[in-house]
Amino acid sequence: MAEFTVAAGVARAFMRFAAAKGASEATLAEKSRIDPGGLEDHDNRVPFTNYIALVRAGAELCNDPALAMHFAETIDMSEFSVVGLLTHASETMMEAFAQLNRYGQLVVEVDIGTAGRFALEGKNGDMWLVDTRKDPDDFPELTESTFTRMIVGPRRFLPAPHVLEVHVTHAAPAYRAEYDRIFQCPVVFESHWNAMRMEPALTTHKVQLQPRYVFGVLSAHAEALLKELESSKTTRGRVESLLMPILHTGNASMDKIADRLGLSRQTLYRNLKAEGATFEQVLDELRRKLALHYLGGKRVSVNETAYLVGFSDPTAFSRAFKRWTGASPRAARVSTTQHDQMGVS
C-alpha cells in the first residue's frame, strides 16, 4: 500500500509558523527528516509520517501543545494550497464543500472511502459535517487543525456562526480551553464521531471571495495535480516520495527505501522493473530534476545544490550535472540568471 503524503506547501507553512514562534528550523528539519529545500515547490509531496513528526516537534520546541490549532487559526489554506484558493473562488459554501471533498487529498492524504473525506449527514433534524478519516486518534492534531480551519476561515465572511457544536473522538487535552476560545461553541470529547453540527442555511451562503473566472483556472490546475498524485501511487512514485526527504543525507540507498516500503530489495527491484525503471534511474532522475530546480531558483549555490541532492563531493556533482545537461552547474546557473535579466522566461 502506498504511503500517504502531505503537500509540501503545508509542511513549509507549518515549519515557518513554528520557526516564527521560536522553534529552530534546522532542528525541525532534523527531527522530522524533512529537507526544507524540497518544500520550495508547494505541490511537491512529503510523507505523512514525516509531517506528523514535524507537527509534534514544533509543539515541543515552541512549548505549545496546541500549535496545530494555532497554525490553522492563523494561516489560511489559500496561502499554501490551490485547494484553499479554489474554495475561495466557489460560488456557495456547498460548492466550496464539494471542491474540498474532491481535492482535499492534494492537501493531506488520509485513509478514507470512495465518497471523500467529509460527508453531510442529517440526524434528528440537524445537519452534521462528518470527518470520515479512519483511525483519527492516531494523529488527533489533524482533527484539531481541520476543524479549526473550517470554523475560523468562514467566520471571516459569514454573517452569523455556522458551526453550532463540535464532536471529537479523542479525549480532552490539557489545553481544552483553546477549543472553547477558538470554536466558540459546545465541544464534546470522546464522542463516537468527529463531526460538526452546522447551521442549515450555510450551504446556500455566497462565498466567491475571488473573481469567478479564476474558478475554472484553479479547477484545471487542481485536476492536473490530482492526476499526478494518483499516478504517484506507482512503485516509482512511492520511491520518489521516500527519497525526497532523505536525499540530502547522501544515504538514499535501495535497501533503506525497500525497508521503508516493507519490501525486500529483490521485490522492489522486480516492481520497478515491471514499470520499466531501476532504482538507480529513479534516484538519478530525481537528483537531476531537483538540481535544475535549485539552480534555476538561484537561491542556493552550486555547492549547496550538490549537498541538497545527495553529493558529498561537488566535483562528483559537477560530473553528474554535465552528464545530465551537457553543461556545468555554474554555467547553467549563470545562463539562467542572464535570461532573467533579459526578461526571458
Helix share, percent: 40-55%
Uncertain regions spanning at least 5 consecutive residues: 337-345
Mean pLDDT: 87
Q: How many beta-strand runs?
A: 7
Q: If helices are DSSP runs of H or I spanning 4 or more residues, what is the number of helices?
A: 16
- The dominant shape is elongated
Lateral arrangement of strands in the main beta sheet: 3-4-7-5-6
- Biggest beta-sheet profile: 5 strands, mixed
> Rounded to an integer, what's the Rg over CA atoms?
22 Å
Secondary structure class reads alpha+beta
Separation, N- and C-terminal Cα atoms: 40 Å
> Which percent range describes the beta-strand content?
5-15%
In N-to-C order, the SSE pattern is EHHEHHHHEEHEHEEHHHHHHHH
Describe, in plain words, how this protein is organized in 3D:
With 345 residues, the chain is of the alpha+beta class. The chain has 16 helices and 7 strands. It has helices at 8-20, 25-32, 48-61, 67-74, 82-88, 93-103, 140-155, 176-183, 213-231, 235-243, 254-261, 265-274, 279-297, 302-308, 314-325, 329-341, and strands spanning 5-7, 45-47, 118-123, 126-131, 163-167, 187-188, 194-198. Strands 3-4-7-5-6 form a 5-stranded mixed beta sheet. A two-stranded antiparallel ribbon has the order 1-2. Helix 2 crosses helix 3 (48-61) and helix 5 packs antiparallel against helix 9. The longest helix is centred in the middle third of the chain and has 19 residues, at 213-231. Residues 337-345 have low confidence and may be disordered.
